[in-house]
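User: For my dataset I need records formatted as: sequence, then structure tokens, nothing else. Please produce one.
Assistant:
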Amino acid sequence: MTDQTSKKLLGLRVDEHDSNISYFDGNKVYYLKSERLYNIKYHAYDNLWEWKKDIKKIFGIDEKDIDEIAIVLDPWRNKLPMDNEEFYPAIEYEHIPTKNKVWRVNHHLAHALSCWPLYKKRPEYEIVIDGFGDANNAWTVIKKDKIFKRGYTHKNGSLGLSMNETAEWLNIKNDYGSAGKLMGLQSYGRIIEKFKDTLNYNTYSINKLFDRNNKVAKASPLDWIRTVHDKVSDILINFFEEITDKNYDAEISYSGGVAQNVIWNTAIKNKFKNLIIPPHCNDEGLSLGALEYLRIKNNLFNFKLDSFPYIQSDEKPKQIASKETIIETAEHLKNKKIVAWYQNNGEIGPRALGNRSLLLNPLIEDGKNVINKIKKREAYRPFGASILKEHVKEYFDTEINNPYMLYVGKTTKNNLRCITHVDGTCRFQSVDKDNQTYYSLIKQFYERTKCPLLLNTSFNINGKPIMSTIEEAKEFFNNSEIDVLVIGNKVYKK
């Protein structure tokens, strides 16, 4: 292995939505999602050079300080030829205005490699399923660093795109979050088994599964999408079984936008116990994958990444919450106050994991409506919960460890209506002492209420990124119905 200090590397995803940058300084990795910097949801850079000013601003480096760059470029946007069948070696790319050597990394390879913070050794199977991807590949399976199987958008169809099209037909705003909204909405329907049995589709022929002219469309729209959504769970399980030859102990990483669907994830995880899904499974993880490509190429030791998944290069408070501040906050939550919680660096991924969160006592029966008024989001969408890891089995019918809110469990208590979806499930986060500050807050709340969980949703308003500066957090607080704002060790009250 090569001495870490000999290389400074940069991973880029800057030409499309969810632009992000990862930087290795020879010692550890730093990360920036540009929407947090520009306060624009799904932000994309306008060109292939804008990132230069931001690495100077955020990381304090110039492009001349970088030894190598790897970039994920989508061919359709940049008028590039589609990728070859082989991933390696990456293509040298000469059309970025920089003097650095730049390698263009395949979109799906970057997804697969982005899982590196969660393992020491690459899993045997790396599965990527997304929406548009690079406009060529709908899904890819890598086995022992070689392409094992591939599905093509034009031939096999795209599961992610099908979900987006369905959402559009149901008058759900068609943006990069529409498939997630559909996931929440489908729970209001019923599974119609006789229709489900007619859906003879698989991963290799997904094109018309969500076609509204399908037979199942004779049912109500909600029953239709619930039935088709449930069918996809079966399709994905069959797909994973085929890929692994029903080796349920196989180590599998799973990424791409479709891996954000917590219902499908749960169905797969219940079969494949060693399934790995990163919190950044969507495109905001691509720069981490590009960086990992350079690490492998240069034969470097494994990267270090402090405090994962709290790795956003955003503004952090000067102090963390003291024990006294945590106790005071727990009292506010006990007294049914709405609390905005802003600690340390922000989380990677689309979900708040306790550092940029809006929190509420989950025993408040109409708590969902209370938070919806603040967030201005659709009433049909559920809220998640954060629970002390040691209490998960008491409150949910699952043994899945779920630190990144990537799975659901059936709630087993009848007094948690505000975090329980209409189908009886909750997208929960199991919290342990790795995030000591957040764990301590929930622990203090538990000691006062005998309830070891909190309603947890992202600290943002619908259509805007999660808070990334103290000024933004204060402005939102001052112009909302939030009762208490805790920034580091400072408590603001109305």
